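Limitations

Structures in this collection are predictions, not experimental determinations, and the ligand pose is part of the prediction. Treat each record accordingly. The example that follows, with NAP as the small molecule, is included so readers can see exactly what is and is not provided: the inputs are given verbatim, and the output is the predicted complex.
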Amino acid sequence: MEPQGIAVVTGASRGFGRAIAIELARSGFDVVATMRDPAAGAGLREAVRDGSGTITVMRLDVTAPETITLPDGLRVLVNNAGTEREYLPVEAVPMQDWRDVFETNLFGLIEVTRRAIPIMRAGGGGVICNITSASIAMSVPFYSVYRASKAAVQTMGETLRAEVGQFGIRVVEILPGPVDTDMLASSARRPEAAGCPGYESMAQAMHEGRSAVEQSITPPATAAAAVCEAILADDGPLRWSCDRLGGQLLAGWQADPDGFLGAR
Ligand SMILES: NC(=O)c1ccc[n+]([C@@H]2O[C@H](COP(=O)([O-])OP(=O)(O)OC[C@H]3O[C@@H](n4cnc5c(N)ncnc54)[C@H](OP(=O)(O)O)[C@@H]3O)[C@@H](O)[C@H]2O)c1
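Predicted complex:
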């Protein structure tokens, strides 16, 4: 597609979503950068003065349907808003954590998406871009809630792509590895599982093993450029990485899913 018309990004207050909003606007889209607190959008408009597109800030909480208003003429939706909780073994995760994370990462994303589809159909097509996670490709301990929510988005996206291609709507999925944001910084902590009997040494090993991640962190602007590329690629695949480590994980998973997941 040509980089023009309206693009909506969720969770654009900071981190990856903010970088994606800026990148899309710089490449020519008129971006609606949505966020829970529009005050967090200060400075966004100025960030794209050198581009051919624009940025408008709007309030949108994916868990509050009354805040979800999408513009006529919508061509691109980037479902970026996401959250996670404590890193705990499945047996210790409070049910409320499952509900909260799925409320944002899956149900909120679906609520926005189902409203975007009729608008894109009326406009003759568009792109729906879901941000999942390269962590789907690894059986990482203590990430069950987050990974399961992203895997649900992945599966939903596969079906959606099969359904809406006939309307000129292309669904793409980005599986980021480590991108330099608040969420990544927060994940550097010792997993809360360290306090769960029987899981202490596993939690410690995970904490110590993070040095591999630390060496592979990608700046948000670099990852956002890859997202933009995926959105513009008319004949592109469903799944994309946006950083080096994420690319390696995705390639390994696609080559040998069972072996890579350690599921044998
Ligand atoms: N960073 C990574 O290494 C990495 C790796 C894989 C996948 N991802 C995915 O990339 C996306 C962005 O992550 P990030 O690293 O930028 O995380 P982040 O720094 O924690 O930012 C999360 C963003 O989501 C927003 N958000 C959370 N709940 C929301 C809600 N109910 N409605 C609207 N917005 C909401 C936050 O808004 P507030 O400012 O209001 O809290 C914030 O803008 C997420 O889907 C994440 O799972 C990130």
